[in-house]
Design a protein that fits this description.
The structure holds two protein chains of two kinds. Chain A is built from ten helices and no strands. By secondary structure, chain A is mostly helical. In chain A, helix 3 crosses helix 5. The longest helix of chain A has 24 residues. In chain A, 37% of the residues are buried. In chain B, 43% of the residues lie in helices and 22% in strands. Chain B has six helices and eight strands. In chain B, a hairpin with a 2-residue loop joins strand 4 and strand 5. In chain B, helix 1 packs across helix 2, helix 1 packs parallel to helix 3 and helix 2 crosses helix 3. Chain B is elongated, with a radius of gyration of 27 Å. The two termini of chain B are 19 Å apart. The chains are: A mainly alpha, B alpha+beta. The interface between A and B is large, with 83 and 75 residues.
C-alpha cells in the first residue's frame, strides 16, 4: 500500500489549514459583489463537471436553501429532499443559470421556493385549481417579464426586513404568508381567511409597501 | 387593463398570488408599461428578501454527503477535498479522515482509474449532449411561438411597414418594423452595437401625444434582434419608431441617445 512521507503529510495538513483560514476571512468580509463573483465562478466549474465546486457551493448556500425549504414544507425530512433536488438540478443544469436575471443565490432561492411549493401542493392533494408548471424550477424565473436583476439583500437589510415583518398586523402578514409560502392565489386566500377579495388585495399591498418602505428608508 | 389595475396587481404578482389568467393579463400590461416594470422590479426585491428573512435552520451534517453523492453520483470520500470545513476540531478530523480515505482509494484503484475516467468522460459528454438538446428544444419552441405571432402580424390587413436607419452612435445599424393595431409589432434589427454595462435598448412608438414604450430590445451577440411586441389597442396613430439606449430595466419616456429612427409613411388606421 502506498504511504506518504510524514513531512509531506504534515505540510499538506498545514496547507489545508491555511486554505481554511483564507476562506473564512473571505466569507466574513466578502461584499455582495465578491460573493456574487465567487458563486458564479463555482457555477462555471460545476458546469464543467467539477464536483468540488458543487461541494463548495453547498457549503456556502445550504443554510439559505434549507431554511427556506423548512419554512415552506415545515417537515425536516422533506426540506432535506428539497435541498437535494435543488443541488441535483444545479449539478445537471448549471448552464441554465442566466446571470442577467440575477445572482446565483437568488436563483437557488427561487428554485427552492418553487420545489417546496410543488411538494406542499402535492401533499394537499387537492384536485382543483393548482396547476404546477411542468417545470416548477423555471416557473419563478421564466415568469418574470421585466428584465430586472434579482439579487439578495445584504445582512443589514435582512435584519431590517425581519424587524419590519414583526410590525405588520396579523391581517397584513397572513395573506402575504399564505401567498408566498403557502402557494395560494388571491382568491384562495380570500376563501381561506373568509374575507372579501378586495380586502385581501389591499392588505397584501399595504403590507408589502410597508416592508419596502422599511428597506428603502435604510441608510445605504 | 388600465395602469391603475396593473399597479394594484403588482404586489400579488410578485408573490405569485395571481391565477394564470390574471397573471397573463398583467404581464401583457407590464410589457408596455415602464412604470409597472419598475414597480414589479422594486417589489420583487422585497419578495426575495422575504425568502431570506425566514428563521434560520441548520441542516443535519450528514445531508452534505447525501446531497453531493446523489447529485454527482460520486462517493463522499472523493468529494469536498478542496472544500474545507469552516471550524471545529471534529470537522478537522473528518477532513483528515477523508484525505486518508481518498489517498487509500487512489492507491487501491490506480489500475481502474483510467477506465473510470473514460466512463465518466462518456457520461459527461452524454449529459452535456442531453442538456444541449433540451436547451435547443426550448429555444425552438420559443422561436415557433414567435414565428406564429410574426406571421399573424405580417399578414394583418392593417399592417404598416417602417424602415429604421442607424443614427450617429450606430451608423451601421438598420431595422425594420411591421405594426398592426390589431395584432402587434414585429421588429427585426441588425448591427446593433454591444450594450454598455447596465444599459438596455428600448423600442418606442412615437405618436403625436408622445413616445410609447413598445418594450425592451434584446440583441444577440451578433447585434441582431428578432422580436414580437404587443402594443395597446388604443395607441394614437404612430408617426415614427425609434430605439434608444436606456438604463437597465427601461424607462417610461425616452432619455438616452437614439440608435435607430424611422418615420411611419402613409396612412395608419386609428
Amino acid at each position: 500500500m502506498f504511504t506518504w512521507p510524514g513531512s509531506l503529510w504534515r505540510s499538506l495538513l498545514a496547507f489545508t489549514a491555511f486554505a481554511a483560514a483564507i476562506q473564512s476571512i473571505g466569507s466574513n468580509d466578502a461584499s455582495g459583489d465578491d460573493d456574487r463573483a465567487i458563486d458564479e465562478a463555482l457555477l462555471r466549474r460545476i458546469d464543467e463537471g467539477d464536483a468540488d465546486a458543487l461541494a463548495e457551493l453547498y457549503d456556502r448556500r445550504i443554510r439559505l436553501v434549507f431554511s427556506l425549504a423548512c419554512r415552506i414544507v415545515e417537515m425536516q425530512t422533506e426540506a432535506e429532499e428539497v435541498a437535494q433536488d435543488v443541488f441535483m438540478y444545479v449539478w445537471s443544469h448549471a448552464a441554465r443559470f442566466d446571470a442577467r436575471r440575477g445572482t446565483v443565490a437568488a436563483w437557488l432561492l427561487v428554485m427552492t421556493r418553487s420545489r417546496s411549493l410543488d411538494r406542499l401542493r402535492a401533499r394537499r392533494t387537492r384536485p382543483d385549481t393548482f396547476q404546477p408548471n411542468d417545470n416548477g424550477v423555471l416557473a419563478g424565473i421564466a415568469g418574470s417579464v421585466e428584465d430586472s436583476e434579482q439579487r439578495l439583500l445584504d445582512a443589514a437589510d435582512v435584519d431590517r426586513l425581519r424587524a419590519a415583518l414583526s410590525t405588520l398586523t396579523p391581517g397584513e402578514r397572513e395573506p402575504i404568508d399564505l401567498a408566498y409560502f403557502g402557494g395560494l392565489t388571491q382568491r384562495e386566500i380570500a376563501e381561506r381567511l373568509n374575507q372579501p377579495l378586495g380586502t385581501v388585495k389591499t392588505r397584501v399591498r399595504t403590507g408589502l409597501m410597508r416592508l419596502r418602505a422599511a428597506l428603502s428608508g435604510a441608510p445605504s | 387593463m388600465t395602469h391603475e389595475d396593473g399597479r394594484e396587481l403588482a404586489p400579488l404578482y410578485v408573490l405569485d398570488a395571481l391565477s394564470s389568467a390574471d397573471r397573463d393579463e398583467f404581464e401583457q400590461h407590464v410589457h408596455v408599461c415602464a412604470e409597472c416594470q419598475r414597480e414589479v422590479a422594486s417589489l420583487r426585491g422585497v419578495a426575495t428578501g422575504l425568502m431570506q428573512a425566514v428563521p434560520e435552520r441548520t441542516p443535519p451534517a450528514e445531508l452534505r454527503a447525501r446531497v453531493l453523492r446523489a447529485a454527482t453520483g460520486r462517493g463522499s470520500a472523493a468529494l469536498g477535498l478542496r472544500t474545507v470545513p469552516r471550524a471545529g476540531a471534529s470537522q478537522w478530523i473528518a477532513t483528515a479522515a477523508a484525505l486518508v480515505l481518498a489517498v487509500g482509494a487512489i492507491a487501491v484503484s490506480i489500475s481502474t482509474a483510467s477506465r473510470a475516467r473514460n466512463a465518466a468522460a462518456v457520461a459527461e459528454r452524454a449529459r452535456a449532449q442531453a442538456s444541449a438538446a433540451e436547451a435547443e428544444a426550448t429555444d425552438a419552441r420559443t422561436r415557433l411561438a414567435q414565428a406564429v405571432a410574426s406571421v399573424g402580424i405580417l399578414t394583418a390587413p392593417d399592417v404598416v411597414r417602417v424602415e429604421l436607419s442607424g443614427q450617429t452612435p450606430a451608423p451601421g445599424a438598420a431595422a425594420r418594423a411591421y405594426w398592426s393595431r390589431s395584432r402587434g409589432l414585429v421588429f427585426t434589427a441588425s448591427h446593433l452595437p454591444r450594450l454598455p454595462p447596465r444599459r438596455t435598448y428600448q423600442l418606442w412608438v412615437v405618436t403625436a401625444q408622445g413616445a410609447v414604450s413598445a418594450g425592451l430590445v434584446q440583441a444577440n451577440r451578433a447585434g441582431e434582434v428578432s422580436a414580437v411586441f404587443n402594443t395597446p389597442a388604443d395607441l394614437p396613430p404612430p408617426v415614427a419608431m425609434a430605439v434608444t439606449l436606456e438604463p437597465e430595466g427601461g424607462v417610461p419616456a425616452p432619455t438616452g441617445a437614439k440608435y435607430l429612427v424611422g418615420n411611419v409613411t402613409g396612412k395608419t388606421s386609428n
